[in-house]
Fold each of these.
Amino acid sequence: SLVGILDRLEARGLVARIRSEQDRRLVFVKATVAGHALYQQVEPRIAEIHADLKTRATAEEWQALETILQKITAVVPDTSTDAA
């Protein structure tokens, strides 16, 4: 489950959980310095996978993926100013 994944990332010091000051039921997840460092190490491989996936998918499949991701991000609130 997502909570289990976050528990493991937090235990490894890669993320921190931050409660919203406006609504204590909301918990934001923020990458730590160590989490950012790890991302910098793996980002080139992520870019390779992305490029490979894009060459394997048809234009229609790629458009469908983009549409789905846009729908997902449309329902996720922008919390960039909540959890500083």
Amino acid sequence: MVKTVAVVCGSAGLALLCGCAIQRDHVEVASAPSVLYAPGPEYPETARVSGVSGQVFLRVTVDTLGQTASASVTAETPAGYGFAEAALEAVRNWVWEPGTLHGVPINQGRQIEMRFSAHGREGNWTPRIVHRTSPRAPEAFAASKERAEVLVRAEVNSEGKPLSVSVARELPGPRGLAEAALDCVRGWRFSPGLPGTVIVLVPFGPKQAEDGAP
């Protein structure tokens, strides 16, 4: 039996809470944080064995660097199967485009709903990585034992091959690794099906060993 997790936005997904700043006689509405990279949670083993589906609502604060600064569960159904813990663990690793006010990044909250389905779902919604290789970092960086991560946006065709790749963001850490990340992802392969766009994380340094193919 296939277990899946859906993260939904607005009426069909991430519910948005916009921040506001009062300025004299009018209201300035801040732009909301948007998800760049959202690795899904592990399906709780107890729920998987029992065939139980679940739903979790979380309150997340996104900082000015686009990282999850804090996260808390506001509702979990049903309780006692580990859905809340799995959702919290996942969302702490998400990467965001931070919210802004007057073009300046700000700390801002989001309300998120995660649905865990014990019955799976039909359709190939986003390309899934089926073959990946590690990037070749510059020699000086490899000797430094530092870590860095680059988010890469890939346009994938129906055969699962990247047609084009671009840097979505270099995360905080050593710079200058973008080209190595792009070269790496060009050789990756994704699940065939409907063409689509996917954002993937390319790690450099010790974390590479932890980031094996799915």
Amino acid sequence: YRAIYLDETPVGFVMLSDDSLLSPPPPKPQIWLWRFMVDERYQGQGVGSIALRLLIDHVRNKGGFETLELSFVPGEGSPEGVYLRAGFRHTGRLDRDEIVLELPLTS
């Protein structure tokens, strides 16, 4: 769990599901962006895009993962555009009623 701050103000929340933290970790651990929230008062100001870029950098620097996956509820106000601009792509899979995206982490 991590908070997203703008200066000294908490404006959001991030939660990862990281298989590499299991004991013992699986041979091919997966990582999933489980929660990514930015207070509506700070949306549209680039806060989420910057926080997402920092999160992606953190996961890449950690190493050992092929992709970072997430899901979102489609519709008006969805974060799909933010995720696609960050390099995520559609997988064609659904998690219940949520669309699953992935970001390749290896070249």
Amino acid sequence: MNNKNTINIEKTLYGKFINFWVTLFLKFPLPNALKKFVTFETFSYLFIGVLTTIVNYITYVICQTLLLKNYQLSTIISWIVAVMFAFYPNKIFVYKNNLNNYNVINLLKEFSSFTLSRLFSGLCEFIFMIILVDFIGLNDYLSKVIVSIFVIITNYLTGKLFVFKKS
């Protein structure tokens, strides 16, 4: 389904940036098991995932320091903002699932699937934050960073396997 409005992401400045990192990493003597993960999609997800994590963390810090001073509510609000931010970059840049031939119904279905898949990691994030902050006694900002690692991996897998799967 390649029409004249389709953008080849890998030929854009963004694509060249990601391909630079893929090429750089492939120059290292990596085991074959690791080399299969050095792909445009993986590095693109890491880049978008880092941006989403930054949006999540900045929103959390703003909620914590300026507005709420309640880490549970700040976690929920930062999750909502991060999910809203992450949908289009993941759809277009990571999974190369462009907007051509889409109608509003299909977009809403895809956004719903995306949100539901992120709900799982969001619930895990919320529960892990409570465990780390209330039961283990870690600082909430450090806990947020630790939990983000799990969230990034979980979101990549659910996005690839359930939301933006190739037909």
